Amino acid sequence: MKKPPALKGRTDRVFDLLVRPPHKQRLADYLALLKPLDDQGRYLPFEALRYRWAAGLDVNFCWALVKKARVAQYVDLLPLGEPLQWGKYLLTPLAQRTLSIVDRQTTSAALDYMTSQIGERAHFSYLLNDLIEDEAIASSQLEGAATTTRVAKDMLRRQRQPRTPDERMVMGNYRMMNFAWEKRYEPLSVELISAMHRVGVEGIDDEQYSPGMFRANDEVVVQDGAGNTVHRPPPATGLVLRLERLSQWINLAHELPHHKNYLHPLIKAITLHFALGYEHPFRDGNGRVARALFYWFMFKNEFAAFRYIAISLLLRNAPVKYGRSYLHTEADELDLTYFIEFQCSVIVRAVSRFDEAWRKSVAFSEDFEQWLTGAGFFERLTEPQRSLYQAAKNGVAKEFTAGNVMEHLGCSCNSAMSTLNGLVELQIFEKRKMGSEWVFFLHIANELKNGSERSRSRSESA
Predict the structure, then answer these.
(1) Where are the chain's structural domains?
(2) Class for domain 376-461, per CATH?
(3) 55 phi-psi bin (left φ>0, alpha ψ -120 to 50, beta other)
(4) Which of 147, 184, 225, 348 can pair with 166 through a Cys bridge, CB separation 3.0 to 4.6 Å?
(5) pLDDT tens for each residue of the chain, 462 residues long
(6) What CATH code would you report for 90-355?
(7) What global pTM score does this model have?
């Protein structure tokens, strides 16, 4: 990565230099660069901008002009590291658009509305739990877990014990996400950060991870795929004090409208994500804890839909960009705008996927009821049976057991089995013995919803 040039106070003298040779002859070209974004509205690092400047311009001077414009709009966030540096950011158009989308589509009130539109809360619960699993699995895969998504989902849904270190990593992340939800109303503290790590990594490889214990030396570094050291965290000496300082900043009520230093919770959550990764307080598992704390802070501020928005799913598909957003920030005097921009681009896509999922669920719910009415099934199905069938037909869940039905519908084992066996009797589900338990599957083919011949014959026989 090409680091930006050290300006050594050059931004303070930039206007004096503009009117002197050799810059004076290209004054218009230089003045066109006096802005924080490029012509397409992007907040680019030096290594990307230097290829976009006109030939013959002084690269260092061009960068000084861009930095001059950015410095004028910087907002200080928090002090980081040792020696102390202030992390800052600039509110870009992408960040503003992301804040608007998050405010409209991910609050607890928005989630309640979505649930009411589905009409059958139990079915939506299946959909949401599927999305919770996505985050736990993708976060593990981002950290190197080799288990497949299908196998990992099977383990989580059956609540079976993990068999490999990779499966233990997935289960640990799943527990950590639920822990973040359970602890959402607690203030951030060194103890909570430690507990988050312990919940997430305990039992995977305790010697490697040292669950809940902060690093005691400076041997921990971040390396790229080629084994090159790309980040040396601040020293272990003073680490706990710096985490306490971070906790105090997080616990300030910046989100209150009258706060003189108002800060939207999303920007603050992303900053927390960066700060944990930057400090790297544990021997291993730092990325997982950083992402879990991002979610924890969003939960704390009543953005409940983030429980079902799998950001790591998209980070997993762009690990190089994820890493570079850290590196650009560190290389450019802790300008967190690079990290915030990348996270916002991911969050916009993740929220869009969540929105698409619930809209499809609403559409299917309407189609399903029309089919049930037309086929004569509607009067014969109980609401729990409709919920299970709807989840199966929508592809949200492909296998059902008494155990997971009990969990998702909140009923007894007898009620779960009665509901499932009733669907078998109606020839909607079939069941098969797998090991020591019965597993139920959708029996009616997908053509049912489209009114195929097979669908009609099944309806008549029922």
Answers:
(1) 10-73, 90-355, 376-461
(2) mainly alpha
(3) beta
(4) 147
(5) 677 877 665 666 776 766 677 777 788 888 888 999 999 999 999 999 998 999 989 888 899 999 999 999 999 999 999 999 999 999 999 999 999 999 999 998 888 777 666 544 444 454 555 556 666 676 666 666 656 666 666 666 666 777 777 778 878 888 888 899 999 999 999 999 999 999 998 888 778 889 999 999 988 888 766 677 788 899 999 999 999 999 999 999 988 888 888 999 999 999 999 999 999 999 989 998 999 999 999 999 999 888 878 777 777 777 889 889 999 999 999 999 999 999 999 999 989 888 887 777 677 667 766 766 776 766 778 888 888 887 776 666 678 889 888 888 888 999 999 999 998 888 778 888 877 789 898 764 333 333 333 333 333 333
(6) 1.10.3290.10
(7) 0.78
Structure tokens at 151: 């196998």
